[in-house]
Amino acid sequence: MMAGRPPPLVVTFADSGYQPLLQIWLRRLQELGIERVKVYCLDSAVQEWCQKQGVDSAQVSWSGALVDLWQQRIRIFRTLLAAGEEFIHSDIDAIWIHNPLYRGAAAGRDEDLLFSQGTVWPFDVHRRWGFVLCCGWFWAKPTAPVLAFFEALEADVKLTGDDQISVNRLLSAMGARWSHADADEYCLRLREHVVQCWSRPIRATTTIGSLSVALLPQREFQRLPEDTEHAIVKHLLTPKNCQQKLSVLQAYGLI
Fold first, then answer.
1. Which of 164, 35, 147 shows the shortest CA–CA distance to 85?
2. Which of 48, 78, 141, 236 has fewest C-beta within 10 Å?
C-alpha cells in the first residue's frame, strides 16, 4: 500500500445458501481490523441480510449457472479497476488467519497482480509450469497493464467458461516467465499429481505487455494443507455444499 492511499477493497460473492459461511468470514475480517469489505450478492435474500447488518453490498443479476458467475465476476473486477480501485478478491471459504496487508509475503509487494497458488487446474498449464494460479484469492492493482489484462480476460472467459482456465492460459500465452532461483522449492502431492511450491514469492513478467505477477507461497496461502505456523489464509479444498464446507473447516479447526 502506498502512503495516503486507502487499503485495498476486499470483495467476495455469496448467495443465501452460503450465508452461514459468509457471516463467519465477515466476522473474521472484522476481528483482523479489515474495514473496507464489499459483498456482491447473488440473490435478494443475502442482499437484505447484508443491508440489515450494515455490510457494504451490491446485488448481482445472476442466472444461477457457474459459467455466468465467472463472467459476472470478471466484469465486476474490470469495472473496479477502471474506477481506480485496488482490490483483493477472496472466496468466503478462504479463511483469513492473519491480515495479509501487514503480515506475510503479500505485504509490501509491488507487482501488478498477486495470486495465491492453485493445485493442477488447468492441467495444460500445470504441465508447463508445475503449478497454477488460483482465482479464489488474489490482489489486483489498478494499473494500465492490469486493466488491459482483465479486458482480455473478460472476452476469454466467455469462450472458456472458467475464469481460472482463462487467467492461467492468458498469462502463459502472454509469455509469462517465472523467476524462482532464490526461493527454496519443495513439492506437495494431490492424488497422482505433483505440485511445485516455493517458500517465498516467485515473480513473472510478460513478454507481451508489461504486466508483473507474483505467485504467493502455498505455505502462507494454502490450497493444500500444510502446517499452520506460516499460514496467512487457508483456502483448503472443500465440498461445494455450504454445510459440508462448514463441517470440513470445523474439522481443520479453522472455524
1. 147
2. 48
